[in-house]
Amino acid sequence: MYSDKVMDHFKNPRNVGEIENADGVGEVGNPTCGDIMNIYLKIENNVVTDAKFKTFGCGAAIASSSMATELVRGKTLEEAWALSNKAVAEALEGLPPIKMHCSVLAEEGIHKAINDYRKKQGLPLWEEKHPHSHDDEGETCQH
Amino acid sequence: MGEKRIIYMDHSATTYVKQEVLDAMIPYYAEHFGNPSSIYSIARDSKRAIDTARAQVATSLGAEPDEIYFTSCGSESDNWAIKGIAYANRKKGNHIITSKIEHHAVIHPCEYLEKDGFVVTYLPVDKYGLVDPAELERAITDKTILVTIMYANNEIGTIEPIAELGAIARKHKIPFHTDAVQAIGHIPIDVKAQNIDLLSLSAHKFYGPKGVGVLYIRNGVKIDNLIHGGGQERRRRAGTENIAGIVGLGKAIELATADIEGHNKKIRALRDRLLNGILAKIPNAYLNGHPEKRLPGNLNISFEFIEGESMLLWLDDEGICASTGSACTSGSLEPSHVLLATGLPVEISHGSLRLTLGDVNTDADVDFVLEVLPKVVTRLREMSPLYKGGKKGGCNVQ
After folding, report:
1. Between chains, do B335 and A34 touch, taking CB under 8 Å as contact?
2. Model ipTM?
3. Which of B85, B134, B236, B313 is deepest in the core (most CB within 10 A)?
4. Are A125 and A26 in contact (CB under 8 A)?
């Protein structure tokens, strides 16, 4: 079911943990769909210097949050915001259609953490530019 | 990387075909291959083999041979029973009673019939997954034409009070069907004493081949065909018979029902040791289903703070075959409808693990799982935003 890349990020997830006094925290997901992700960001001089996650969820959920935190490290806030669920899924060498919503959740977690930071800094919140893509998912998504 | 040993603990999903069964089946592929409906000698061999299998099934259920009909699987038997009874009786009424914890092969035909003017009551269950006979009595109306309640649940192993439920249906002269797919070989079945009018079973759950099942239909029960065509199975179920499969099913059911008590004793001992070991080593773990009225090999445990599929992936890495929710819901986003019906919160339903032991399992298997599983749970809990070092107190995970 899963690519080797997904299995790697599942078995050896990068960036597991919390950041004490994180600059931005994004908590997304809900128990109903069986995925909850907490994204923690450390932001200095407009750059994401550290990113960590805690996830309750399936293999794809854990791999997506691992990959997403990897991809935003060292990026500017603007670059980190631009991270799409598609990019996460591609970096993981593909996710089964029914698991695409996990990459969506990871993107939303990053966005929520960034906006949490912006709120704390008194900056205007960024808006979701476009609805997340589900492609051939079939199942409904409550995100 | 060497060949990993497989520890198979998913017998409720399917079982291997026993050698004795396979040996009985093989001659019917290339040697005695005749179509049983044909008149010549080699066809008569096939027909005889089917009659033998029919008698074997009848004996194991306490039924008459002419009440046994071969199908392609348990799902077909369920579909036939439900749709066949519904359509045969629609002038009498349109109300069907079933339960909230049935297999999808019962639930989906019921939902399908609801689109065609039938009304279905899905009886609730208690926290153990038991149907209350008093609830059934209350639900019956003068329009009820079918009651269908499973004998034993595939996910949580709970065994329903079938004889009592059947008696209530019988009192109201309503046909009573039971999906006994998980029960064969674990519970002695006597369709007469247990007031059963229709019963579904499937070979691949009791060490027979996939692709063959049975619907028992008590003599006198009116039922429409599901499959129309040639005159096979006394014109009630068309299709050239899967002779080898049928022979295999007959042999398998004979083996499975030869010593139910002895077999249960052995499996139960392994299962209980596994259960006690898990509960002792892993905090915040809860058994789902009834503690006593349950299939002897079934374990369904919820582990708080983590999710089932990620557990399965790690177990698979170690060669352990198990499932989360039902095997059939692996493609769905929904947590198990069975666990939800018992009142289990959603996130705990997502964290359930089903281990079903069977004839391949040994003490070494149990030891290995007891070694691996605690580490898997610990690892996943460390990653979980819900785990705060042991919510309910007690000793911390190391």
Report:
1. yes
2. 0.90
3. B85
4. no
